[in-house]
Every structure is written in C-alpha cells, then in structure tokens.
Amino acid sequence: MKVIVPVKRVPDTAGEKKIDPNDKTVDRDAGEAVLCPVNEFAIEEAVRLKENAGAEVKVLLMGPDNAQSIVRKALSYGLDEGLQITDDAIAGSDAIGTARVIAKALENEEFDLVIFGNQSTDARTCLVPAAVAEILGLPSLTYARKLEVDGDKVVVHREHEEGWDVVESTLPAVVSVVEAINEPRYPSFKGIMAAKSKPLNQKSLSDIGGDAGEVGFDNANAVLIEFAPRPPKEAGTIVEDDGSGAAASQLADWMEQKKFI
Amino acid sequence: MSELLVLIDHSEGKPRKVSLQLLNAARTVAEGIGADVAAVWLGTGGADNADVLGANGATKLYTWDSEDAHGYVTLPQVEALQQIIDNNDVAGLITSSSNHVKDVAARLAIRVDAGVITDATNLEIEDGKVVATKEVFGGDTITQCRVAEGKFPIWTIGANAFPVEESGGGAAEVVSIDVSLSEAAQKSKVTSVEIQSGGDRPDIGEAAIVVSGGRGLGDEEGFRLMEELADTLGAGVGASRAATDAGWYPHRFQIGQTGRTISPSLYIASGISGAIQHRAGMQTAQHIVAVNKDAEAPIFSIVDFGIVGDLYDVVPKLVEEIKSRKG
Ligand SMILES: Cc1cc2nc3c(=O)[nH]c(=O)nc-3n(C[C@H](O)[C@H](O)[C@H](O)COP(=O)(O)OP(=O)(O)OC[C@H]3O[C@@H](n4cnc5c(N)ncnc54)[C@H](O)[C@@H]3O)c2cc1C
Ligand SMILES: Nc1ncnc2c1ncn2[C@@H]1O[C@H](COP(=O)(O)O)[C@@H](O)[C@H]1O
User: Fold this and answer.
1) Whole-prediction pTM value?
2) Cis upstream peptide for A21 (omega within 30°)
3) Does an H or E element contain B305, and which?
4) Does residue B271 line the site of ligand 1, with CB under 6 A?
C-alpha cells in the first residue's frame, strides 16, 4: 500500500506575526516557521499504516526552497521519502491554486491513500483536501476522527457538530484527519538521524506538468485587498474574589445590566 | 434577474439558525448587485419551510426532496448545486462555514471555477463589488478580500456573524429539482450517522451564550458544574484543548485553533488560561467573561468582566445568583 501525506510549512502560532505596513502583506520572516501541527496527526496515521500494513509513505510539500527542513522534519517520524514542489510561479497561490498544484503532483504518483490535515493552522480554509479530491475525481473522506483500511476499502468516521458520520469507500481515496484521531508520537533520535539521508526530490511546476497560468498570486481566485491588526480591546472590569464567591454577585449585576439574565 | 443562492443548513426538517442569518447576509449582497435571493434545500422537507425562508428574504426555494442528498459523501450536494448553477442565471453562492459544507464549496469551486472566501464575518458592497471581511491569525488580523473578476463567487459565513432579521416577504416560490447522481457520487456511502447529544443544549456554534471550562476544572466532574451554569442561561458548553485532551469532554466541543471557532454574544471561561490557540476560537465573542485564580492569566487581557478567584467558589454562587434573579 502506498500513502502520501501532504504537509505545510506554517508560521508558529505562538510566535509573533507581523504585517509589513508598506505592502500590507504578512512578513513571513517575522516568526519561526514550523511543520503545521495538524499534519502531525496525519503523519501518525501514516506511521501506523506503515507498522500495521507495511505501507510506503511519501511526504509532499508545496513551498519555497527553505521549506526543505520541514520535509525532513516530517520524514523524521519514520516516513520513507519526500517530494517538494518549489517554483517562483507558485508563490501567493490561494487554496484553490494550492489544490491545483498538489493534485498535479499527485497525478504523477502512485498511491492508495492521501492523508491531509483537516486544516492548516495559518490559512484554516479546510478547502485543499476536498478540492484536490475533486480534481483527481476521488472521494473526499474528510475530518476523520477514525480511519480504518481494510483491503481496498476505507472506513472513516467523519466528525461534525453533532457527532460523526460513518462513511466507506473504495481506494484510492483522499482523507483528512482531525486531532481527535490519535496522539502523535515524537520523532525518535534514530528517526531524526535517518531523515537526513532519506530521498528528497525537488520538482518545479513544469516538472510536474503544472500550468503557471492557473496558480500563483496573479491567478488567485480569492484576492486579498487589505490587512489590518485587530483594534485593541478596551480594558474590562476585573474584580478579585475574597474566597467566598461574593464576586459572583457583581458579575451577575453586570450580566443583568447587559441583559444576559 | 440573476439569483444569489443560499445553501440552507438544516436539521430535523428545520433550517438551522445560521441559515436564517445567511439569508440576511444574502439580502444585502443581492440588493447591491441587483439579484434575488434563492434558497437551496437539499434533502427532505424543504417545501414545508417555504414560509420561514420567504419571511427571511428568499424569493425562491430550490428543493431536492431526496434522502440521497445526504446518503453519500459531499458529491450529491455538489451535483445538485452545479445543476442549479448550470440551468439558471446564478450570481454566486453563500453557505455556512461548517466543516462538511466547506467540502461542498471546495469541490463545487473546481467545477464552476469559483473563488472561495471562507469564514467571512461581513459582506459589503463597494463600487458595486462585494468585499468580504475575514479574520486571520486567530482573529489578530482583519482582512478585506474579494473574488477575482470573472470567477464564480462562493462565500462561507460562520454562525452569528449576522443577526436574523425578517424581511417581511411572503412564502418563497418552490421549485423542485431532481438530480440523477453520477456513479462517482455513489462511490462513498454514508453507512450510519452517530448523533451524540449534548442534552437539550444549543450547538456551541449557534448558541448566544457559551460556558466553557479548562484544565482549571481539575477533573471531568467539573463539567457538571459548567453544564449547571449553562442550563441556567440556556447556553452551550465548550472546552479548552487541555480539557478535551484529558478526556473530560468530547473533542467536538473544543474551542480554538484546532477546534470550533465561535462568536456568541457572551463567552464565560472558567479555569482557562487563554492561550493564543484558545483565543483563536473565541475572541470574536461580543462579550467575554473569565474566572481564573491567576491574575496574570492572558485571558484577562481580553475580558469585559473578569474575576480573579477560585472557580469552585465563584461559579456555584453565580448559578445561585442567576437562579434567584430569574425567580
Ligand atoms: C497546534 C496547537 C493547537 C491548539 N489548539 C487548541 C485549541 O483549539 N483550543 C485550545 O483551547 N487550546 C489549543 N491548544 C492548546 C493551548 O496552547 C493551551 O495549551 C490550552 O488552551 C490550555 O488549556 P487551559 O487554558 O484549559 O489550561 P491551562 O493553560 O493549564 O490553564 C488552566 C488555567 O486554570 C486556572 N485555574 C486552575 N485552577 C483553578 C481554579 N480552581 N479556579 C480558577 N482557575 C483555576 C489556572 O490559573 C490556569 O490559568 C493548541 C496548541 C497547539 C500547539
Ligand atoms: N502548501 C502545501 N503543501 C502541502 N500540503 C498542503 C499545503 N497547503 C495545505 N496543505 C494540506 O492541506 C491541508 C488543509 O489546509 P487548508 O485547506 O489550507 O486549511 C493541510 O493540513 C495540509 O495537509
């Protein structure tokens, strides 16, 4: 069985994010870049498929040259091979543009299952996995809180607001996972050392047969016009409780005044 | 006149509150671009709701009255919408931002060459064009976006971004459609649906008030106290990741970057420090209240009303106060 895990390089959420006042874009160099934490859950599922079903797992990343360290990081969990799509023409792609590049890259690969994170922590659109599935004409079994592969069949519990749907489909298929699915392990020292010499292939847009007229900033279907920091919130009322819970009546006054009671 | 479609989210034969909010949002846009609002109800029971959807601004109601709409994963809804778009003069689509619906938007976008703006918090008309407001970086940055010229626009909108406002319109004209599903659509079947009830509490995405608890509750039992407080207010109950990770409350109630993003009128956090990943899911709440024994907890920087104290002293008292004031 062959599995592909698309991973994204994102700014560390806990780090500082800055907006360049001149061109109103995000200063990508301001904070530290990390492997999107949601992808760790996808990687963990892939590692389990390796252990339990002998799967071969490839990591796929679309991103700039210096994102190579992120691919290596993903490989350090024990995955087999990396593929990075790097091209100036890709920069500034929106979710649909990103999906086009990833789908193109996948068209050149053999796989039974693609395991995405349900969202990236920076864009948070959740659009990429289903859009990729659509381009490839495959089922999109997204938001998996449970994933079972049985022969050429996959069963997924798709989480939603009220519980989950149990769905099944034949392979190949595209899935995305939510963090409830597992507890990712840490990479082992051996894994980190081994990742340095795992095969990592870099390809350009033309290498994968992509069309520069469909991707990148100039061809984004959704266009960003302006950025501004959220206006700071006015300081609220803060009261200290004396250990008797008496402060609750002040809160109840406030709630009454705001018509919440 | 062209039509602006609104995909109605529904449950047990009734539109969810968010759907009526979407219709309100759609009215502003439709007026600005010279279109009518048409609701789309996929699944059974749509025609029974022509009145309520009409009263909230839909002049037309497309229904596909079939169990198949939700019997397979995503594609039936995509194919139904595509059919409506292909056969009518459609100017755009508004949907909710719930997870499974975003998949419909994503797949449809590929088919109709759309630009998708997810999680819009406002839609305005500037120079005859629709400009969407969207918050990024967990609400720390506010952006204005639009869909590129010549692309079919799809906007997804979260619950409570818009109020429900009746338009005073009469019943929507019902147009029923029939969709013959492709083979591909029938490939991934929904074999069962597991509904995990949250009691009679409202969904945290739609609730006007959400009460939520974190690691400071100390154990699973702490959530009984959260539920008690919630029930005095008709509120939903949410949790921080520390609490869901500990197994004290199910993951689908998690609020934050990797959980739900909600915008209630009032958010009451107990025993939650207010980490940036948590704030990413709740800082657009209109009013924020926190109870935390650490005066330095970051949550206090975004509260309207904060109590520095032990939640086990304060919350039971608050429950009493609310009950006695309600009489
Ligand atoms: C990739 C990623 C994604 C994440 N996504 C999310 C997410 O979606 N949602 C989320 O919530 N977190 C998320 N987190 C985790 C987040 O960083 C925090 O760890 C988490 O929010 C902490 O939860 P907490 O506030 O309940 O616990 P803590 O940070 O441990 O805070 C507990 C608070 O309770 C207070 N307290 C203790 N006892 C009492 C008492 N008796 N009375 C009153 N106060 C008391 C303490 O003073 C403390 O401030 C994410 C982290 C990462 C890395
Ligand atoms: N540039 C990228 N390269 C590889 N995978 C990506 C990229 N962007 C998004 N993804 C994948 O798509 C998922 C959903 O991201 P998003 O649609 O941006 O919320 C992520 O968890 C990744 O698995």
Assistant:
1) 0.95
2) no
3) strand B305-308
4) yes
Tell me if B302 sits within 8 A of B272, measured CB to CB.
no
Q: Please tell me which residue of chain A has the smallest CA distance to B11.
A: A162
Indicate which CATH number applies to the domain containing B268.
Answer: 3.40.50.1220
Contact list in A for residue B295 (CB cut-off 8 A) is 238, 240
> DSSP alpha helices (H): ranges in B127-275?
222-233, 241-245
pLDDT in tens, chain A (261 residues): 999 999 999 988 777 565 555 555 556 555 689 999 999 999 999 999 999 999 999 999 999 999 999 999 999 999 999 999 999 999 989 999 999 999 999 999 999 999 999 999 988 999 999 999 999 999 999 999 999 999 999 999 999 988 999 999 999 999 999 999 999 999 999 999 999 999 999 999 999 999 999 999 889 999 989 989 888 888 999 999 999 999 999 999 999 999 999
What's the A164 CA to ligand 2 centre distance in angstroms? 23
Domain ranges of chain A: 2-219, 234-261
Q: Which residues of B touch A24 (CB under 8 A)?
A: none
- Has residue B94 been placed in a domain? yes
Is residue B150 situated within a structural domain?
A: yes
Statement to judge: residues B230 and B168 lie in one domain: no
Q: Are residues B12 and B125 part of one domain?
A: yes
Mutate to test the interface with A, among B101, B152, B252, B265 (most CBs of A within 10 A): B252
Pocket of ligand 2 from Cβ distances under 6 Å: A 6-8, 36, 38-39, 60-63, 95, 98, 102, 116-117, 119-120, 123-129
Instruction: Output phi, psi for B23, to 5 deg.
Output: -65, -40
Q: Name the CATH topology of A2-219.
A: Rossmann fold (3.40.50)
For residues B16 and B119, membership in a common domain is answered with yes
Is B70 within the bounds of a domain? yes
Compare CB distances from A236 to B251, B280, B303 and report the shortest one's residue. B303
CB–CB contact A255 B105 (8 Å) = no
Instruction: Indicate whether B27 and B147 sit together in one domain.
Output: yes
CATH number where B37 lies = 3.40.50.620
B139 CB burial (10 A radius; 0-12, 13-18, 19+): buried
- Chain B residues whose beta carbon lies within 8 Å of the beta carbon of residue A130: 74, 102-103, 106-107
Residues of B in contact with A220 (CB under 8 A): 115, 148
One domain, residues B155 and B242: no
φ and ψ of A27, to 5 deg: -85, 100
The residue range of the domain holding B108 is: 3-186
Shared-domain flag, residues B213 and B170: no
Residue B200 lies in a domain: no
Residues B147, B22 share a domain: yes
**Total domain count, chain B:** 2
CA of B172 to the centre of ligand 1 (A): 47
Q: Are strands B35-42 and B14-15 parallel, antiparallel or unpaired?
A: unpaired
Among B148, B205, B309, select the one facing A240 at the smallest CB separation. Answer: B309
Torsion, Cα of B158, B159, B162, B167 (10° steps)? 120
- Rounded-to-integer distance, Cα A28 and Cα A22, Å: 14
